[in-house]
Design a protein that fits this description.
Elements (H helix, E strand, L loop, with lengths): L1 E5 L6 E6 L2 H4 L9 E7 H17 L3 E7 L8 H13 L7 E6 L1 H13 L6 E5 L2 H7 L4 E6 L2 E8 L4 E5 L8 H18 L1 H10 L5 H21 L14 H10 L6 H18 L5 H13 L10 H10 L8 E3 L2 E3 L2 E2 L8 E3 L1 H8 L1
Parallel strand pairs: 2-9, 3-4, 3-5, 5-6, 6-9
Antiparallel strand pairs: 1-2, 7-8, 10-13, 11-12
The protein binds adenosine-5'-diphosphate and zinc ion (ZN).
Length: 354
């Protein structure tokens, strides 16, 4: 078992991570007698009873509710529905909410926790690789509306994150790949050792493998969030691969899953860095070889004007200019005077997307 700290002053919390930590976690230190688990239909079937039993064995009052599995559930009305269900069940502020599932459950239920009775304490128990390495850390919560994704949301930190590798045993291969893309992202932006480990082990699917990559990734995310909770600058490094990736998601009508879109995004963003003379041919190739070895696609047939339009209006960009974080070698990004994102001329972007 390992503990990774997210340092946010009074709102600091631990990510407790390892195999079997859900059972070993000392719920007593949370200081609540009642828990309400919010999960999705798949995770409920697979692991719902297991978690309920753990809490019951500790002598707590436990309730469980679920939403339909999948990204389509991540909308405003569903958050309202979950909140209303809490109200119908008479949940009060002494109850601790437990989000139990992938990123979708974490985002919706975390968001509900932020507004229900002006804020309910909550714990994340992420069950997908993507949620364990990324969305469960940093307190971003939110839902989609017809006008855009994650438009309604809050930064609202949990009391703890319980990251149990054992839940990954039931995760479908496509969902594993979804998470691996973000793990590769962490390696490219910040961790040569993780990158080398992935080069040797990325086809493994055993506990030791997951434990290593989740611990490394979660530590990077926790450190970045601790230094820059509200994304004034440093947290932008986590957007590597996401500027182009976001365009791929939209252009594909969200048929391409997030991790795959980010993988494609990294290929093209690294190409931009290479064209600007920042990243060597060798390191560009090394990154792309690893993405390929992970079983992720490398290319996308772009509608270039469409992609540029999306990137210009991306909420992460300003003044119509497109900003990128640019790797300068495996494990390090270009940084200048504390800045990590740089505007790139559209001609260069266009050329890279060809
Ligand atoms: P993500 O975590 O990738 O952002 P979701 O929350 O939509 O996205 O989870 C992806 C899918 O994986 C959902 O269908 C969810 O029910 C399912 N899922 C989550 N955790 C597990 C698990 N441990 N085993 C099997 N399926 C899971
Ligand atoms: Zn992402």
């Amino acid at each position: 078992m390992q503990t990774i700290k997210v340092n946010l002053g009074e709102r600091s919390y631990d990510i407790v991570m390892g195999r079997g930590v859900a059972e070993a976690f000392v719920f007593g230190k949370i200081g609540a007698d009642k828990y309400v688990i919010v999960t999705d239909s798949n995770v409920k079937k697979l692991h719902g009873e297991f978690l309920e039993q753990i809490l019951k064995n500790c002598g707590y009052d436990v309730e469980i509710m679920d939403i339909p599995a999948g990204e389509d559930s991540k909308h405003w009305e569903m958050a309202g529905e979950v909140g209303r269900e809490l109200a119908r069940r008479g949940i009060d502020r002494d109850t601790v909410l437990v989000t139990f599932g992938g990123g979708v459950v974490g985002d919706i239920a975390g968001f509900v926790a932020s507004f229900y009775k002006r804020g309910l304490r909550y714990i994340h128990i992420p069950t997908t690789l993507l949620a364990q390495v990324d969305s469960s850390i940093g307190g971003k919560t939110g839902v989609n509306i017809p006008e855009g994704k994650n438009i309604f949301g809050a930064i609202y930190q949990p009391l703890a994150v319980i990251t149990d590798i054992n839940f990954l045993k039931t995760l479908p291969e496509d969902e594993v790949k979804n998470g691996l893309a973000e793990v590769i992202k962490y390696a490219v932006i910040k961790d040569t050792e993780l990158f080398e480990y992935l080069e040797k082990n990325i086809e493994r699917r055993d506990e030791e493998f997951y434990e290593f990559i989740v611990a490394k990734s979660a530590a990077i995310k926790a450190e970045v969030v601790s230094l820059d909770e509200r994304e004034s600058e440093l947290r932008k490094i986590l957007n590597y691969g996401h500027t182009v990736g976001h365009a791929v998601e939209i252009l594909s009508g969200h048929k391409i899953f997030h991790g795959q879109a980010v993988a494609i995004g990294m290929v093209y963003e690294a190409k931009i860095a290479n064209k600007l003379g920042i990243l060597s041919d060798v390191d560009l190739q090394r990154q792309n070889d690893l993405i390929k070895k992970a079983g992720l696609s490398l290319t996308y047939d772009f509608d270039i004007e469409g992609a540029l339009k999306i990137m210009r209006t991306d909420k992460k960009n300003k003044g119509g200019q497109i900003y990128f974080v640019l790797p300068k070698q495996i494990g390090a990004l270009k940084e200048e005077n504390g800045k990590v994102a740089f505007p790139v001329e559209e001609e260069v972007v266009k050329n890279a997307l060809k």
